[in-house]
Amino acid sequence: MLNYEEEIRKFKPSLEVEDxxxxxxxxxxxxxxxxxxxxxxxxxxxx
Length: 47
Known about the structure:
By secondary structure, the chain is mainly α.
């Protein structure tokens, strides 16, 4: 039978998770709302 408390004490997060987290925060993530704002601004400038 597993001793969950012992397993939790031994747990160490994966280094890959930390690396991914840093990469995501450093990345310029443009979402749909950003794209729509850009399109609307360009449309206003053309008028």
